[in-house]
Amino acid sequence: MKNCTLFLIMTLLMAGNLNASGDMKTSEENAKQNMEEAVQDTKRGTKEVGRDAKEAACPIVNGKVDCAFQKGKHSIERGADEVEDAID
Fold first, then answer.
1. 62: three-class secondary structure by DSSP
2. Interhelix angle for 64-87 vs 2-61, to 10°?
3. Maximum CA extent, the chain
4. Residues of 22-58 as b/e, b for ≥16 C-beta within 10 angstroms?
């Protein structure tokens, strides 16, 4: 009887440890995924700021025709970024 009780206690302790290990791995995966999303958000934000700066400086450096082309290009790139965000 004592052996059965001891075996039951050991089994429960081992099962608890395995479950805790699984939860830790899930937490690590979540942290990694959150970090990757933050990096992607920062990357996209930096791209957007760069595009805005180019559009602001464009009329000073180039003519209006070149600027219109560049604005159209940036608009398409913003749309592609939004689609990429939706997929992620």
1. coil
2. 170
3. 92
4. eeeeeeeeeeeeeeeeeeeeeebeeeeeebeebeeeb
**Domain span holding position 51:** 2-87
Q: What pLDDT digit, counting tens, does each position of 37-86 carry?
A: 888 888 888 888 888 888 888 888 887 777 888 888 888 988 888 888 78
Q: How many domains does the chain have?
A: 1
Total Cβ atoms within 10 A of residue 70? 15
Q: Tokens representing 63?
A: 């003519």
For the chain, how far is it from start to end, CA to CA, in angstroms? 55
What is the C-alpha to C-alpha distance for residues 18 and 11, in angstroms, rounded to an integer?
Answer: 11
pTM listed for this prediction: 0.54
